[in-house]
Amino acid sequence: MFPRLCGLVLARWSRKVAVAVALGGAAAATALRFALLEPAGDPSRVYFGTDTRAAGLLLGVALGLFWTPNRLRPHDERRFVALLDGVALAGAAVLAWYAVGLDERAPVAFRGGFAAAQVATLAVIAVAVYPAPTRAVRLLSARPLRWVGQRSPAAGCAGPVSLRPALVRSSGCARHVRPQRRRSW
């Protein structure tokens, strides 16, 4: 259903309108999550509800429509690359905090933790696809991470660990990624 809806929006309106629709949907999902949260109540509805968890998907759609590698200007200036690596490191730190420091019943998870993890994931992905020779791209292109990403589609839903080398190659950073050998299992 969702891919068809996205296709319909893109067929009828411009990319800018599609980005605005995705951002509006993400804001609505986040507002609904905050509205449904009862501090003393059971957070299951907020945690498991598709409508309250759609913000991450919609933000990813907006990023994919707006931050396309072929439209970004390649950079290899040291300070800019260092800034990108800093953004990726900050995003990874927030994701580590979210993964290790929170559980499904922690109040902070519902009062901004989800949103922080979503924005952090977007930051890491944005840096990974930017056409610049960042350390983040080299790290995310490491053989063990590629191996997990190629074999586990579910890992792709969990975050940036599954960024495929093809994504990195399409970003113009192929010179920083070792070619991948295909194996038949």
What does this structure look like?
This protein has 185 residues and is mainly alpha-helical. It folds into two domains: 1-66; 73-185, no CATH class. The chain is built from ten helices and no strands. The protein has helices spanning 2-12, 15-36, 44-48, 50-66, 78-101, 107-129, 135-140, 143-151, 153-158, 165-170. Helix 4 runs parallel beside helix 6 (107-129) and helix 5 (78-101) runs antiparallel to helix 6. The two termini are 33 Å apart. Residues 156-185 have low confidence and may be disordered.
What's the short version?
This protein folds into two domains: 1-66; 73-185, no CATH class.
Keywords:
mainly alpha, disordered C terminus, 10 helices, globular, 185 residues
The shape is globular
Structural class: mainly alpha
Sequence of secondary-structure elements:
HHHHHHHHHH
Radius of gyration computed on alpha carbons: 18 Å
Counting DSSP E segments of at least 2 residues, the number of strands comes to 0
Most strands sheet: none
Overall domain count: 2
Tally the helices: what do you get? Answer: 10
Estimated helix fraction: 55-70%
Give the DSSP E fraction (strand runs of 2 or more residues).
under 5%
Contiguous runs where pLDDT drops below 50 for at least 5 residues: 156-185
The rounded distance between the terminal residues' Cα atoms is: 33 Å
Q: What is the arithmetic mean of pLDDT?
A: 77
Topology overview:
Layout: H1 2-12, H2 15-36, H3 44-48, H4 50-66, H5 78-101, H6 107-129, H7 135-140, H8 143-151, H9 153-158, H10 165-170
